[in-house]
Amino acid sequence: MNNAQLRDEVIRISGVNPSKCMGCGKCSATCPAYDEMEFHPHQFVSMIKNGDLAPLLKSDSLFRCLSCFACVERCPRGVEPAKLIEAVRLQVIREKGANHLKPESVPAMVDEDLPGQLLVTAFRKYAK
Amino acid sequence: MNVRYFPGCTLKTKAKDLDAYARRSAEALGVTLDEPKDWQCCGGMFTSANDEVATKLSSVRLLKDAAASEQPLVTVCSACHNVVKQTNHAMQTDAAFADRVNRYLGDDAYHGEATVYHYLELLRDVVGYGAIKEKVVNPLKGKKIACYYGCLLLRPGSVMRMDDPENPSIMEDLVRALGAEPVIFANRNECCGGYMTMESPALAQKKSEAVIRNAKANGADLIITACPLCRYNLNKQSDDLPIVYFTELLAEALGVKEEPHE
Ligand code: SF4
Ligand code: SF4
């Protein structure tokens, strides 16, 4: 897919209209992962709007979003940035062999109290 | 009354307390929790993309079972509640998605007819906090309790529809009904770090520490939560502030807190 097709696909599967964004930055201001992101939620919105997806597809920021939905709740324009980030992440992990989390790496991360909920959630976010 | 009850995977393993105290308390309040047969994991997290079908089927099956039974579906884990409610909402509002799901399942069309409650909503809206207050045998007097909501219980507010997502009171009002004093703190609806504890433990640690620091600064003796993952993350960063499930507190106040899970 070229950039324009990819943008249309991301917009279609997220159901988000990035053109509604007024660039206030409130989503990024409230984002708990802000410090660890190369591209912040408002940048995802504007870059997707502009079809500038290549840097996003390569960025670890995709895997830093906590899906906490704070940006969704607090955006004054109802843009729902987290859904765009999710749609871009899916473009990456849906490629064959592109899983971000591999089962082999799990045992080293597990301790006795770790809830199963954490494992299924991480796999849902990071792998297909 | 009878309701369909979906405990979810983690309540069968690491979060047995959340489940056991929920069951005992329900019994004490005259509610029978019917667990459907052969349920499957909700997946822990809803994928918002509207072309994702397979990951939502377990929730749809559960919802269809509840609709057929004509009972509301009750979940107690924050994550299950979030996934099941978001799936039901998608079945109600996204005709193309519902059509794909129904064609895949190949039987009666389902369009979100089931009613889904979080256990807290069952307490507030069906049983009633007034009725609970009357059944309290062991009022939790003098305890200062910080109610931690995290993300999954409340957001997105337009779908969860259980409380004001920015200024909730459903847990604080329960704490009052049980005779204790709620502690309101700013971080009560900020993320604990969630699943980031695998990808970036330092980030998760920072988020959980902030929650604990903020609860302590406001004088909390105890934090309550409805989420096994929140409890796990907060526990890792807490030395002396206990983190317990809200159902444990409820069972204690109702006088049914015996040894769980035998
Ligand atoms: S909060 Fe909403 S309107 Fe403001 S920058 Fe973010 S997406 Fe755009
Ligand atoms: S959902 Fe993701 S992008 Fe939005 S505020 Fe939470 S961590 Fe940040």
- Helix segment tally of chain B: 12
β-strand percent of chain A reads under 5%
SSE order of chain A, as H and E? Answer: HHHHHHH
Main sheet makeup of chain B: 4 strands, parallel
- What is the overall pLDDT average of chain A? 95
Strand tally of chain B: 8
CATH architecture of the largest domain in chain A: Orthogonal Bundle
By DSSP (H or I, 4+ residues per run), the number of helices of chain A equals 7
CATH topology of the largest domain in chain B: Rossmann fold
Q: Structural class, from secondary structure content of chain A?
A: mainly alpha
Q: Kindly report the CATH topology of the largest domain in chain A.
A: Fumarate Reductase Iron-sulfur Protein, Chain B, domain 2
Main beta sheet of chain A: none
Please identify, by name, the CATH architecture of the largest domain in chain B.
3-Layer(aba) Sandwich
Question: Unreliable stretches of chain A, pLDDT < 50, 5 or more residues?
Answer: none
Largest interface, per-chain counts?
A-B, 37 and 42 residues
- CA(first)-CA(last) distance of chain B: 25 Å
Question: What is the CATH C-level name of the largest domain in chain A?
Answer: Mainly Alpha
Helix-strand sequence of chain B: EHEHEHHEHHEHHEHHEHEH
Mass-distribution shape of chain A: globular
Core attributes:
heterodimer, A: mainly alpha, Fumarate Reductase Iron-sulfur Protein, Chain B, domain 2, 2 domains, globular, B: Glutathione S-transferase Yfyf (Class Pi), Chain A, domain 2, Rossmann fold, four-stranded parallel sheet, binds iron/sulfur cluster
Tell me about this structure:
The complex is a heterodimer of chains A (128) and B (262). Chain A has 128 residues and is mainly alpha-helical. Chain A folds into two domains: 3-97, Fumarate Reductase Iron-sulfur Protein, Chain B, domain 2 (Orthogonal Bundle); 100-128, no CATH class. Chain A contains seven helices and no strands. Chain A has helices at residues 3-14, 26-30, 41-49, 54-58, 70-74, 81-93, 116-126. Chain A starts with a helix and ends with a helix. Chain B folds into two domains: 2-119, Glutathione S-transferase Yfyf (Class Pi), Chain A, domain 2, CATH 1.20.1050; 128-254, Rossmann fold, CATH 3.40.50.11810. Chain B has helices spanning 16-28, 57-69, 78-93, 95-105, 119-127, 129-135, 157-160, 170-177, 196-199, 201-217, 228-237, 246-254; strands at residues 2-6, 32-34, 73-75, 116-118, 144-147, 181-183, 222-225, 243-245. In chain B, helix 11 (228-237) links the parallel strand 7 (222-225) and strand 8 (243-245). In chain B, helix 10 crosses helix 11 (228-237). Chain B is globular and about 55 Å long. The two termini of chain B are 25 Å apart. The mean pLDDT of chain B is 95. Chains A and B meet through helix 1, helix 5, helix 6 and helix 7 of A and helix 9 and helix 11 of B.
